Amino acid sequence: MTKQQYLxxxxxxxxxxxxxxxxxxxxxxxxxxxxxAPENWINVGGTFGKKFRQFTxxxxxxCHGLSLSIGSPAPLDEDFVKDIGQFMKxxxxxxxxxxxxxxxxxxxxxxxxxxxxxxxxxxYVAERIRRVQDILQQEISMENASYYTPAPGKxxxxxxxxxxxxxxxxxxxxxxxxNIYVNSVNHRYDPIEFLKQLPAEQIRYAHIAxxxxxADDLIVDTHGADIIDPVWDILDKAYExxxxxxxxxxxxxxxxxxxxxxxxxxQITEAQAKWQNQIPAVEASANSKKVQA
Length: 293
Description:
Layout lengths: L10 E4 L5 H5 L8 E4 L9 H11 L3 E5 L13 H14 L3 E5 L2 E3 L3 E6 L5 H18 L4 E3 L14 H12 L2 E5 H10 L4 H6 L6 E6 L3 E4 L2 E3 L8 H14 L4 E3 L8 H18 L5 H12 L1
């Protein structure tokens, strides 16, 4: 994917309601774009709505949903999808992403649960993603999710399932760098090998975050801590392999003061600058094969 194909560039930061005033009073110049969970902002007016407008009028915005429940056995909530579309139009939001998980059946379960890695699930989920894209009249992105135990009915590996869904749904990929690391530890695979199997042309942007070490062989994806060096290393390898793509810092719990958040935002910018003018490994490999042919 070329730089021109990305909807935004640089480093992003998630906007949390409890940080609105602090963010308004700080210099956020390191931040190039922002992201919100639309469920937390749809139909919000009054003081919060006015403050939110101050951000959407200044920054490019993405939506990262929490409750689409794309793998749910229950029917797709099309009215909810239409609400998302209206919210995006109202605030000029550029893109919508969601988790490749499910979180509801007859009621919301308040957790993001893994979808079975099966051919049947690929077809089911891809059809629902295409329907969401039809309603919104634009491409959406699905995020590679963290999970702690595979769902019953596993027929393929995580990377095979993810790539099959992306191909059949013809959607974008929100590349979550921390989730690759978390899953690589919890399920004992090589994170760089996993990374290099992702489809370069479908990456739309990335998340990077911290996590909690429950045990030596169990990591919980919390977005509640500083990013550790092995996760930064995976991001560096991703830029080397795919080229630089927009990357957003997620921090949802134990949120520090804004100047501390901006330290990690600046680390993203520095990592991007390192590879900004380099030919991505995946592109160099493709060019080499063309020459040989």
